[in-house]
User: Fold this.
Amino acid sequence: MSTTQFCLRLAAIAFGCLHGVTSLAGALPEERADLSWHMNDGGGVKEQGPLLFVRKNATDDLSINAGYQVDQISGVSAELFAFAAPLHDERKQKSLGVDYLYGKTSYSANVNSSAKSDYDSRAVSFDISQDMFGDLTTVNFGVSKGWDSVYRAIGPGVSRDPTFHERIDRRTWTLGVSQVLTRNLIARYVQDVSTESGYLQNPYHAIRYLSGSAYGIAPEIAPGTRTSTAIALKLKYYLPWRGAVSAQYRYFYDTWKVSGSTTELAYSQPLRHDAVVVDFTYRHYQQGHASFYSDMFSAPNQQNYMARERMLAAQTNDAIGLAVSFDLYKSKHRFLHKLSGAVHYDYAMYKLKDFRDTSLQGFAMGNEPLYDYNANVVQATLTAWF
Assistant:
């Protein structure tokens, strides 16, 4: 996965976390409007910008939502420290979706698009959720398809290279099951299978290889297809003093021989008669490298596929998070039922196990210190329910 694709997915995750990817079966999502600002600063690249999302019921069984997000991107990734100038770019993302409720079955359809100087993305998705067994079990199935266009930016004005244009096709299938196990314990299982085909490398990234007393560089070459599977299990337990603790484990593997696991623990505590909710999270992630990854190759044609992409390197990261949400206004008789605010902060520490920092001077080739960095992720949200 290229850095551009990874950042795009981060934006999609932030977009989805704010307003929910799918609705719960048996009920339409709440009518609300969210205005949010977010920042992700780490690894040499900083992204920040606003997001607006609105959801409104058209009828008792139909809900419509729309969103708009703008990201300002600046900096240069670790792969390009040694031979690239910092970038300054903008990404705009739009979404439109509907949710339809029929009895205890809900249907959701969404379309979204994003545009950047060197990357355009379009996607459609459909999800169906069904409550059963006295509403103790919810099963959902989703499918999505995406079409991406990859360009290469040139010049100080960040214009597109007219000689370069590649495509990527994506498909994802999702199966989820939620089960009420006891009055205090809920479990959820989710499995995703994704396929990608097309230009799956980064047009800017290069490998490095031994060339006498120095090293040479050559374009990276990645396979044209990739299939990945992710399996996640989450347990949430409600405590007698109205707090809740949850644990989640997620395992990922793909046909590039990348495998990784995520363990997450969280605690949530309402305060002041539920007017304030405080959430604490801890997440640990570890990953092995891709089969064709190396920090230093012996020759420019050592093998058919070669990449020096930090997202494909062996690594670990730990993140701690704190979120506080609070009510600002409540009324049962006015158009605006409730106004609330929320602030979420994550501090992540990344350690690469076989990716070296080439920006540092005074070290022999291949003996540079391993690259590690910290990231700050902040999101502030104002939400109105109506």
